[in-house]
Design goal:
By secondary structure, the protein is of the alpha+beta class. The chain has 5 helices and 7 strands, in the order ααββββαββααβ. The chain has one domain: Pnp Oxidase, Chain A (Roll), CATH 2.30.110.10. The chain has a 7-stranded antiparallel sheet, with helices on both faces.
């Protein structure tokens, strides 16, 4: 019984430490903290309220994509529910239709966009989901 309690305590401590590390890494490595070009994606919720999210753009094969890399992904779900979004990039705003990416296109993006195993670890092994942003 004692060994089971110690093992449970160790597992709880390890889980809490991992959660703390994931939270710190996710907070530290937001797109605006990484450097390079960012975009602001504006989504609208069911009540018509606008929400902005800073993201790293993925320019691939002449198209614009964004990726949901972390578990906090309310912006992604809002874009699925209301795919009429806008993107502010380099001072200009353009309207897009957000299209979920799946199948072969998703596999190509996973291969080409680069996301190392350590990044999966620090984002809590969140499955990467992509949206293609088609101009309206």
């Amino acid at each position: 019984m004692y060994h089971r309690a110690v093992a449970t305590l160790v597992l709880c401590v390890l889980a809490a430490a991992h959660t703390g590390c994931v939270t710190a890494i996710v907070a530290a490595f937001q797109p605006e903290n990484i450097g390079g070009e960012t975009i602001v994606l504006t989504t609208t919720d069911a009540d018509g309220e606008s929400h902005e999210r800073v993201l790293l753009p993925i320019d691939y094969d002449g198209r614009l994509f964004v990726a949901a890399n972390h578990w906090p992904r309310a912006w992604y779900h809002r874009a699925l529910e209301n795919p009429e979004v806008s993107v502010t990039r380099n001072g200009g705003t353009t309207d897009y239709r957000a299209v979920p990416v799946s199948g072969e296109e998703r596999e190509r993006l996973l291969d080409e966009s680069g996301f190392p195993l350590v990044a999966y670890f620090f984002t809590g092994f969140a499955p990467r989901q992509f949206l293609r942003l088609d101009p309206r």
